[in-house]
Each structure stands twice: as C-alpha cells, then as structure tokens.
Amino acid sequence: MKVKLLKKNRETKDVFSFIFASDKPFEWKAGQFIFYKIPDENEDERGITRHFTISSAPFEDNIMLTSKFDFEKGSSFKKALFNLNVGNTIEAYSIKGKFIISDYGKKYVFIAGGIGITPYRSILLDLEHINFLDI
C-alpha cells in the first residue's frame, strides 16, 4: 500500500514521529510492526527497506512510526525518512509481529527504555480504548 506523510513531529531533540495516511484500509494489532520502503540514491548495504513498530494504536486514524535519529552517523534509510516532506508518498507492507496482548486475563509488566517504548504506546492506548485499562 502507499502511505502519504501528513505530519512530522519532533518528540525530543533526536526522536521524531512520522504520521502517515494509507491509500487503503488495513488492520493491525497493537504492538505489531510494518515494513517501509523509501527509494534512495544513497542506499546502504541494508537496502531501501526497514521495519518499524506502528506506534499509533489501531483505533487511531493514521499510521505513526517513531524513531531516534543520529544525524551524524545515521543510516541512509533514516536520512531518507527524515528528509521526507509532508505530502510525499512511500510504500508500506507486510504487517508482522507477535508482541501483542492476546490474553486479557493476565497481568502484565512493561519494561522499556529509550525508543523501545514505541510498541507500548500502541498497546497501552489500545488497552485504554477497549476499557481494559484506565490511564
């Protein structure tokens, strides 16, 4: 599917969120990730595709990815991502991942640091949305 960049938010000095609209409806579970493909003339050995956790919750209208950027040593992919302008379109595909809440009868403890919090944003907002959790 094609996704169009709607907004780029600076979360901290080196963390940014990118909010995309999809050209067609799709479903995912909180905690899953998706692959993004950004054509880049300066692609590195890892190519032009990377996966990122979908940091937006499934009930939210758009797809959000959040990432930390090292502006000096960052990969060519992250530089291409950062240089996207509002209105630019890229490819997104193949939703995957098993880091989801499937048993609402269990108690969970979430521990994360740094940018590793992105799946928790999606999961916690989703749990609140279905009235399983009061945040």
UniProtKB/TrEMBL annotation:
<dbReference type="GO" id="GO:0046872">
    <property type="term" value="F:metal ion binding"/>
</dbReference>
<keyword id="KW-0274">FAD</keyword>
<dbReference type="GO" id="GO:0050660">
    <property type="term" value="F:flavin adenine dinucleotide binding"/>
</dbReference>
<dbReference type="InterPro" id="IPR017938">
    <property type="entry name" value="Riboflavin_synthase-like_b-brl"/>
</dbReference>
<keyword id="KW-0479">Metal-binding</keyword>
<keyword id="KW-0411">Iron-sulfur</keyword>
<dbReference type="InterPro" id="IPR039261">
    <property type="entry name" value="FNR_nucleotide-bd"/>
</dbReference>
<feature type="domain" description="FAD-binding FR-type">
    <location>
        <begin position="1"/>
        <end position="102"/>
    </location>
</feature>
<dbReference type="GO" id="GO:0016491">
    <property type="term" value="F:oxidoreductase activity"/>
</dbReference>
<keyword id="KW-0560">Oxidoreductase</keyword>
<dbReference type="InterPro" id="IPR050415">
    <property type="entry name" value="MRET"/>
</dbReference>
<dbReference type="GO" id="GO:0051537">
    <property type="term" value="F:2 iron, 2 sulfur cluster binding"/>
</dbReference>
<dbReference type="InterPro" id="IPR017927">
    <property type="entry name" value="FAD-bd_FR_type"/>
</dbReference>
<protein>
    <recommendedName>
        <fullName>FAD-binding FR-type domain-containing protein</fullName>
    </recommendedName>
</protein>
<keyword id="KW-0001">2Fe-2S</keyword>
<keyword id="KW-0285">Flavoprotein</keyword>
<keyword id="KW-0408">Iron</keyword>
